[in-house]
Amino acid sequence: xxxxxxxxxxxxxxxxxxxxxxxxxxxxxxxxxxxxxxxxxxxxxxxxxxxxxxxxxxxxxxxxxxxxxxxxxxxxxxxxxxxxxxxxxxxxxxxxxxxxxxxxxxxxxxxxxxxxxxxxxxxxxxxxxxxxxxxxxxxxxxxxxxxxxxxxxxxxxx
Length: 158
Fold this sequence. Notes:
There is one protein chain. By secondary structure, the chain is α+β, with helices and mostly antiparallel strands. It has a single domain (10-132), classed as Small Protein B, Chain: A (Beta Barrel). It contains four helices and seven strands. The protein has helices at residues 17-22, 37-44, 92-105, 134-157; strands spanning 11-15, 23-33, 54-58, 61-65, 86-89, 108-116, 122-131. It has a seven-stranded antiparallel β-sheet with strand order 1-6-7-2-5-4-3. The longest helix is centred in the C-terminal third of the chain and has 24 residues, at 134-157. The chain is globular. It is found in: Cytoplasm. It holds the Pfam family SmpB.
């Protein structure tokens, strides 16, 4: 019976492209996210934003703050609050690992993207990251430009 179930492709709903520029990304984690029904419907529409969001820990739980999931228009009074804190579903080991890095090394936990996996479940990709200074950002931009130019030269030459 499981063979008959149609496999869904991984659909990215929200991508935090700015995080790759502002932070030096380290280890990544995949976390489930506890959502209301109207939030899932809204995510399937593909209009969420995680650009200004961050992850924090309260009493052994990981919480996603400031992620914007717009209201589902057909839900009327049963709708959700667009920027409510949402619980992330991680193992205790993973939560401990995240917060040890935050406390000991002064790093931060940044959400990179929200997507639906092959089973159709909403997931959040998190990364342990270190903030970049302005000069580091300029250096990273230069390296990225040089890598692009190098690829272009190699393609034209060969």
